[in-house]
Design goal:
With 231 residues, this protein is mainly beta. Helices cover 11% and strands 46% of the residues. It is built from two helices and 17 strands. The N terminus is likely disordered.
Length: 231
């Protein structure tokens, strides 16, 4: 019988636990035209436009398509963006105490310093999305499909990823109050370096990547979930 050396076993384990990061590239926009007073309409397509300190508060914009646009400050408070599409967009300082974008599609989108209160984003499709900074109160992404997503340096009070399919997702240097992973399907979901208070959905942690310290935080939750008594 040939036995693997300790070094070989360590190398094999390291290879088996390799984490694949999100596949992200910077959003590069071409020449944009400025629209200082946008008149957004439901279901229209907006392509190659720069908006500065614009407001779409309270508008009905379901199914609207934004492609290769830059938002330098935008207010979407109580704007209905159900089924809207954002592709190749840079969105800075998106303000929305009530953010309604259920079933929206985001592809190659960069957010910086958003301020969201209650964000209803369930059953959305996110691919190659980056959120950098900001403060989010409640984010509902239940039933969404997230692929190649990075959220960094962000404060999130409650993040609901119940029943999500999340592949190559990283939360980096974030602070999260409650993270709900109930029924989620995770692949390379990297939580290392993020602080959290509690996680629910302990049956759905396969595919989650944590560091040693986070494992100590999870230990009592897992013990309680499994009925383990520590005496």
């Amino acid at each position: 019988m040939v036995r693997a050396t300790p070094a070989a076993r360590t190398a094999k384990t390291a290879k088996a636990t390799k984490v694949t990061p999100p596949r992200l590239a910077p959003v590069l926009l071409g020449e944009l035209r400025d629209d200082p007073a946008p008149d957004f309409q439901r279901g229209e397509r907006y392509d190659g436009v720069r908006y500065s300190r614009a407001s779409a508060d309270g508008l009905e914009l379901s199914g609207t398509d934004f492609a290769e646009c830059e938002f330098a400050g935008i207010s979407f408070n109580e704007t209905q963006l159900r089924g809207a599409t954002f592709r190749d967009c840079i969105i800075a300082e998106l303000y929305a105490p009530v953010f309604m974008a259920a079933r929206a599609t985001l592809r190659d989108v960069e957010f910086s310093n958003p301020r969201w209160g209650s964000a209803e984003l369930y059953e959305s499709g996110w691919q190659s999305v980056r959120i950098d900074g900001g403060k989010l109160d409640y984010v509902n992404l239940r039933g969404s499909r997230l692929t190649d997503v990075q959220i960094s340096d962000c404060i999130i009070n409650e993040l609901d990823l119940g029943s999500c399919a999340a592949t190559r997702v990283v939360l980096k240097n974030c602070t999260i109050g409650t993270l709900d992973l109930s029924g989620a399907r995770l692949t390379d979901f990297d939580l290392r370096g993020t602080d959290f208070r509690t996680i629910s959905g302990l049956d759905s942690l396969s595919g989650l990547v944590v560091d040693d310290y986070q494992l100590t935080l999870l230990a009592p939750l897992l013990a309680g979930h499994l009925g383990i008594v520590v005496a």
